[in-house]
Amino acid sequence: MHRFANPARFMRMSQIVLPWLTVVTTLLLVAGLVLSFVAPPDYQQGESVRIMFVHVPAAWMAMCAYTSLAAASAAALIWRHPLAEIAAEETAPLGAVFTGLCLVTGSLWGQPMWGTWWAWDARMTSVLVLFFLYLGYMALLNAFDDPTRGRRAAAILALVGFVNVPIIKFSVDWWNTLHQPASVLRVGGPTIDPSILLPLLIMAVAFTLLFATLLVVRMRAALIERKIRVLDAAAGGALG
Amino acid sequence: MVSFKALLLRDLRLAFRQGGDGAMAVIFFVLAALLFPFGLGPEPEALARDAVGIVWVMALLASLLALDRLFQSDWEDGSLDLMALSPLPLELAVLAKALGHWLVSGLPLLVAAPVVASMLQFDPAGLPRLVLALALGTPTLSLLGAVGAALTLGARRAAVLVSLLVLPLEIPVLIFGVAAADPAATGDGSTQIMVLGALLALALPLCPWAAAAALRQALD
User: Fold this and answer.
1) Does residue A3 fall inside a structural domain?
2) Which residue, of A39, A57, A163, B120, has the fewest CB within 10 Å?
3) Rounded to a whole number, what is the distance in Å from the CA of A114 to chain B's nearest CA?
């Protein structure tokens, strides 16, 4: 693992991987969106079931991104890898956007289905807390004059906030909530019809790859930015 | 153990001689809670229904008041460095500081809460449960607050930032604290009391550990 933690090696490898990743992501995203509109309407939810093709993958990515954020933060704290620090830093805004997307689409689906934009049930509340944890992480990251101190404090916050992820996952099992219980990843197989499950899974893979693509782009940009700053400092600020 | 006691007594002595934070938290708690009859209107039924929520939210906000100063003054005058160098593990030093914070700003709330709740027309039969829930919940608030205070040590606008970080993490305490004493809830609230105890039992070892890690980063 330490072999891949070298920023120069990361730049070389990501340059090769990135075009492929972008192409596959685009293809899957287009295929997923087309299938989402082709899929038959649900017998109960009607056309609004199509919101689920964005909502569910966004919710998965919100949790997946926070898990990666916590893992990268742990790696940054334990091994002090600069690349892990950058990965954590660049994951947070992406995770916040996925969480926001999940909250907004859920709200749009809830209005016709439940008759309300928002309900204070356990899963929605814990996802809202997740959103605030992302915001708190980013606020803490930028709150110090010394960026290193901000990064380490934010990394500890990311680890503390990780307690929320299992709460989100199991909230529908622990509490009798308005939000429906797990229907894809459950013991005894999914309870969703294949005609809807297939587009959902394709969208989930597409969202995962989209996250990976954007993360690689952001990490590359951050590394280049750091390099420019070092060059600028060496040139006495002449580069502006 | 001796140095733990010494640290705790030092914090309490500082708090009482300076006479600031502890009294301020309780005055803020009472004053802010008594704004609600003006905001909501003085109807006894409406107030009685919302009394538990008002008391809990105000207790939560009152616990935030002194947080930004929890480690700040020790950090500025260098005593935090001495604590880190002392044979007492930094985790225990954090625990002593959090305990001091609770004794100064949490414990007086337990005394003030029945008075405030009664003024908000809360049913007196529910008072013991409310105080028990606060007794189990407010130490958790102090422990979580210590993590936030340690993380924001030396940050710009630390006082605002610490609320932003700590409030989302304190939501579970608020939910179960209110449910434990809510007159509208079914059952006797013992489940919620047990959950509050479980949250405290989790926070007691984990929060000092996280806060000490954050302090070590600050002292690096």
Assistant:
1) no
2) A163
3) 23
The DSSP code for A51 is: G
Among B157, B164, B214, the residue with its CB nearest the CB of A153 is: B214
A184 within domain boundaries: no
Q: Is B164 on the interface with A (CB under 8 A)?
A: yes
Suggest the residue from A157, A170, A176 to mutate for an interface test with chain B (most B CBs closer than 10 A): A157
A222 part of a folded domain: yes
Average pLDDT over residues B90-95: 92
B151 to A159: CB separation less than 8 angstroms, yes or no:
no
Q: Is B121 left (phi over 0), alpha (psi -120 to 50) or beta?
A: left
Q: Specify the 3-state DSSP secondary structure of B30.
A: helix
Number of domains in chain A: 1
Q: Name B151's Cβ contacts closer than 8 Å, sequence gap at least 6.
A: A140, A153, A156, A157, B162, B165, B211, B214
Region of A144 (left: φ > 0; alpha: ψ -120 to 50; beta: rest) is beta
How does pLDDT run across B137-168, given as a tens digit for each residue? Answer: 999 999 999 999 999 988 888 888 898 899 99
User: What pLDDT, on a 0 to 100 scale, did the predictor assign at position A177?
Assistant: 65
Higher pLDDT, A182 or A86: A86
Residues forming beta bridges with residue A46, ordered by sequence position: A42
For residue A215, the domain's CATH number is: 1.20.120
| Range scoring the smallest mean pLDDT among A9-18, B140-149, B176-185 | B176-185
Q: List, for residues B96-112, the tens digit of each pLDDT value.
A: 999 999 998 889 899 99
Q: Cα A128 from chain centroid?
A: 14
- Residue A46 — φ and ψ, nearest 5°? 65, -145
d(CA A218, CA A210): 12
| pLDDT-based confidence at residue A189 (cuts at 50, 70, 90) | low
Secondary structure of residue A44 in the 3-state scheme: coil
Question: Whole domain around residue A71: which residue ranges?
Answer: 9-40+49-176+193-234
Q: Please give the share of chain A, as a percent, with pLDDT higher than 90.
A: 42
The percentage of residues in chain A with a pLDDT greater than 70, rounded to a whole number, is 92
Residue type, A111: Q
Domain-located, residue A188: no
Q: Report B:180-209 residues touching A (Cβ under 8 A).
A: none
